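_Backbone structure tokens_
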Amino acid sequence: MAQTADKLQTESQLKTLNEALGSGGFLQIRRMLNGLPPADAAHLIESTPHKIRSVLWQLIDIENEGDILQHLNDEVQSQFLRQMDAEEVATITEGLEADDIADILQQLPDRVIREVLDSMDHQDRIRVEHVLSYDEDSAGGLMNTDTITVRPNITLDVALRYLRRHEQLPEMTDSLLVVNRNDQYIGVLSLRKLLVSDPSVTVREIMDTEVEPIPARMSSREVATLFARHDWVSAPVVDDNSLLLGRITIDDVVDVIREESDHSLMSMAGLDEDEDTFAAVMTTAPRRAVWLGINLLTAFIASGVINIFEGTIEKVVALAVLMPIVASMGGVAGTQTLTVVIRGMALGHISRDNSRWLISREMTVGAINGVVWAIIVAGATTLWFDDPLMGGIIGAALIINLITAALAGAVLPLAMKSMNIDPALAGGVVLTTVTDVIGFLSFLGLASYFYG
């Protein structure tokens, strides 16, 4: 229901925007863009073609540019950042959280990053440099250094008076972080407990020491898994010596989950998760051409296998009609297994201890489906061509290819992960090649043996 409402709202805003553009009502557009929440304004900009969004960006008030920029995807961010100098970037990022500034700066060349950092005040520069020192896809790259810490020996009354000295609390603050004199993490003090407990008790008496901190070098994917598992709103981040570095909040984790989802979807087509829906033609075409070229090479491999049996195909024309069935069934079966395994890997369910069982299970499923569909296809083929031998050949080929597809779909992502290759990106192409080659080889090979 909420998604439908959002969609209708976006459609209405786009209609208003296009009407205003058509009539030259730039003042109306300026008021609309600057009156929207930053995330909605960013969504509206991303929903417009390349040339129009450049005009829209010029209508954004400078005090709103930073807030809107942080909600744009990386590719659109880069489009606008390339038009700015270091001073402009420093101006629009002033007041943003350290992790959001770091995300924006990572779209810039190193020289410009240095200039922007040099233009910041000392405290802000230290915070941003701290985040930039970690990989953007790690806990350190996600963390925000804006935290509120307390010592375990103070009373809750002192902690409350300390909080009242702040003009406002950092966003997503659901707990205070407890540290020792060396700023090493000890535990967390929930605001819910703080507000309802006896003010005379000490922090040590009611703090929670069972909340494990997140190592700064943990991958963002693992961080997202922990947040989902424990229903965290925020979590502390520490270095190798348990020194508190900052905290990660749920809004950043939601971004990670969305990016992972986009990555899985777009990688199946060989595209980047930051692919701009309205990117220019000359930007989009080369990217897709590369993947098409890779796919063409794999298609030539499958065609080479078919060519080996050219003589047999000429003798038995029915083979040309039935070949796609074997390859297609294997491709679908393999993709099912591949998808299940990649999802299991993403959720952290698959390890060396249970991978053998999973491979065995998938091969058994492949064999069962292979036999069931082999009987059905063999019967249909026999009736169609009045040739029981042809029915038996395609049935046997189906069993071979579905078992192979299940094995390949389970083993390929595990093997690719061990070689640091993204299975979501390369798994589909390799799997299709395997199922096509084995499908054609088994079907045409058996036909060549019996009809040759």
The radius of gyration is 29 Å. The first strand starts at residue 149 and ends at 150. The chain has a mean pLDDT of 85.
